């Protein structure tokens, strides 16, 4: 049995994975870890035992966990496992694929109201895009997403179902990325444009083994595609549209997405151009707002013809920071709790590195030192929010601009 | 009048301070913002926005920039 995961100098084979699963007698229902092997092993164990598993970002602060509505007792829940011993990888995969759909994976994603929303997926919805065949057997995947997020899970299932090695390059020293891509002859890589931009300066020579480079989660960047082709000259560069609600649905070469005939009757366009997705393509959540049976994505698209479209803009206030979607209201709520803050508006500022960063305009009580207050706000937010949700630049204003309806102007 | 180098040093030091690092006294032109100053994507995004506000130039417009000298060249060329 071959390599399962490479991470930070450690190699774990599929054989070791199976040994570890066989040894495990308890499953922690809530996974809040940063070690990718622990996360992926937890998922596989839950699949074998057909138990629900909940993935939380390892960097969620206590405040954020509290805002999810979870208690400390829940987080520590342990399930006693009833499962048979597994002897091979084929047996492991056969068992998982034959399971009777009791398994469920729960993720939390930034919601359009202040609170992150809970989305549950069954095995068939999370593996809808997974392709298994002999053709994919020799693939080697670079793992370049957070494994607790939907995109990371899709890479995981694609690799795992084909017994491919995963080379973990998310959140590791960028200088080592070129080396490991070369050492393991990585053939497939899927990442956000922000991630690609962060590794490109360190790739000195071409990496010929890469056959497919996929980007998703953020706005398409034509210039980046050209840069990727320089370092991955044999790669087919693709752009995918995916969301935590529905997973990856459309793929594009360049910026024109095609709708596969398989799902043509499950995709619609509203009069204002908003992309609508039929509920049968979604995971389950109480917080989805369905319009009859259709989910409003918030993405405004332009039709090219019956089966092709292009993204134009976002309808919602969610701000995309390097592939992470942030609800500005969640950030504003935390800032407003800080002493001396009268009012605040959080906005996006565009840039070529992460697409956007957050900036905040704050109104504070008179007589407070602004530079000191900015440091204090940042310090407090570091304890309460994940780092990408913290505004990078604060401006102190006398008044927050409001529209006639009394809504803040977030332009 | 504060020259461009001093202004850039000020911007870099704001970001270093947030990361819990001490300020740089002298702006060495060969410093790499990623390797030597340890900036990640969010730091670089902040750097480019602050430079744009101060100098009106988007330093990453023409591709990848890494050293202090390359940034100064972009600023001075504006």
- Number of beta strands of chain A: 25
How many H/I helical runs of chain A? 12
- Termini separation of chain A (Å)? 54 Å
Strand content of chain A: 25-35%
Coarse morphology of chain A: globular
Textual characterization of the structure:
The complex is a heterodimer of chains A (411) and B (78). Chain A is built from 12 helices and 25 strands. Chain A has 411 residues and is of the alpha/beta class. In chain A, the strands form 5 sheets. In chain A, strands 1, 2, 9, 10, 11, 12, 13, 14, 15, 16, 17, 18, 19 and 20 form a 14-stranded mixed sheet that branches. Chain A is globular, with a radius of gyration of 22 Å. The two termini of chain B are 18 Å apart. Chain B contains 3 helices and no strands. Chain B is mostly helical and 78 residues long. The A-B interface holds A 174-175, 194, 197-198, 200-202, 223, 227, 321-322, 349, 351-354, 357, 359, 378, 387-388, 392-393 and B 18, 34-35, 40-42, 44-46, 48-50, 52, 58, 60-61, 63-64, 66.
Topology:
The complex is a heterodimer of chains A (411) and B (78).
Chain A: E1 3-7, E2 10-13, H1 14-23, E3 26-28, E4 30-31, H2 36-49, E5 52-55, H3 62-67, H4 72-75, E6 78-80, H5 89-98, E7 104-109, E8 117-121, H6 123-126, E9 141-143, H7 150-161, E10 166-168, H8 177-183, E11 188-191, H9 193-199, E12 212-216, H10 222-231, E13 236-243, E14 247-253, E15 256-258, E16 267-269, E17 274-278, E18 290-291, E19 294-305, E20 308-314, E21 319-321, E22 324-326, H11 328-336, E23 341-351, E24 355-364, H12 370-384, E25 393-396
Parallel strand pairs in A: 1-10, 4-5, 5-7, 9-10, 9-11, 11-12, 12-13, 24-25
Antiparallel strand pairs in A: 1-2, 3-6, 7-8, 13-14, 14-15, 15-20, 16-17, 17-19, 18-19, 19-20, 21-22, 23-24
Chain B: H1 4-18, H2 41-55, H3 68-77
């Amino acid at each position: 049995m071959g390599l399962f995961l490479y991470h930070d100098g450690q190699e774990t084979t599929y054989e070791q994975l199976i040994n570890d699963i066989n040894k495990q007698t308890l499953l922690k229902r809530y996974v809040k870890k940063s070690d990718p092997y622990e996360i992926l092993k937890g998922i596989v164990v839950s699949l074998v035992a057909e138990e629900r598993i909940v993935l939380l970002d390892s960097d969620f602060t206590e405040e954020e966990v509290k805002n999810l509505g979870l208690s400390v007792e829940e987080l520590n829940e342990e399930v006693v496992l009833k499962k048979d011993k597994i002897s091979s990888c084929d047996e492991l995969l056969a068992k998982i694929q034959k399971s009777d759909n009791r398994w469920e994976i729960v993720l939390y994603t930034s919601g359009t109201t202040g609170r992150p929303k809970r989305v549950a997926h069954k095995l068939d919805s999370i593996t809808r895009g997974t392709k298994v065949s002999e053709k994919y057997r020799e693939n080697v995947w670079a793992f370049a997403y957070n494994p607790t997020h939907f995109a990371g899970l899709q890479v995981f299932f694609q690799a795992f179902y084909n017994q491919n090695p995963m080379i973990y390059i998310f959140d590791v020293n960028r200088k080592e990325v070129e080396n490991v891509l070369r050492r393991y002859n990585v053939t497939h890589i899927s990442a956000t444009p922000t991630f690609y931009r962060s590794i490109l300066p360190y790739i000195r020579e071409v990496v010929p083994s890469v056959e497919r480079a996929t980007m998703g989660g953020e706005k398409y960047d034509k210039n980046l595609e050209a840069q990727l082709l320089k370092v991955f000259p044999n790669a087919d560069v693709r752009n995918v549209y995916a969301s935590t609600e529905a997973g990856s649905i459309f793929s594009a070469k360049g910026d024109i997405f095609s709708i596969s005939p398989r799902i043509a009757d499950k995709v619609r366009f509203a009069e204002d151009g908003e992309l609508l997705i039929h509920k049968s393509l979604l995971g389950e959540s109480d917080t989805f707002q369905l319009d009859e049976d259709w989910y409003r994505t918030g993405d405004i698209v332009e039709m090219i013809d019956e089966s092709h479209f292009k993204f134009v803009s976002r309808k919602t206030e969610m701000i995309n920071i390097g592939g992470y979607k942030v609800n500005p209201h969640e950030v504003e709520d935390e800032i407003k709790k800080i002493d001396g803050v009268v009012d605040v508006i959080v906005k996006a500022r565009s840039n070529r590195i992460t697409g956007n960063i957050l900036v905040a305009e704050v109104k504070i009580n008179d007589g407070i030192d602004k530079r000191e207050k900015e440091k204090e706000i940042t310090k407090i937010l570091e304890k309460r929010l994940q780092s990408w949700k913290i505004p990078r630049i604060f401006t102190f204003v006398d008044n927050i601009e409001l529209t006639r309806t009394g809504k803040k102007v977030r332009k | 009048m504060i020259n461009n180098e001093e202004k850039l040093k000020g911007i870099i030091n704001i970001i270093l301070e947030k990361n819990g690092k001490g300020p740089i006294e002298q702006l060495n032109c060969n410093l790499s913002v990623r390797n030597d100053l340890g900036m990640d994507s969010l730091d670089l995004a902040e750097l480019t926005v602050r430079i744009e506000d101060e100098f009106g130039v988007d330093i990453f417009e023409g591709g990848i920039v890494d050293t202090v000298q390359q940034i100064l060249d972009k600023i001075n060329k504006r």
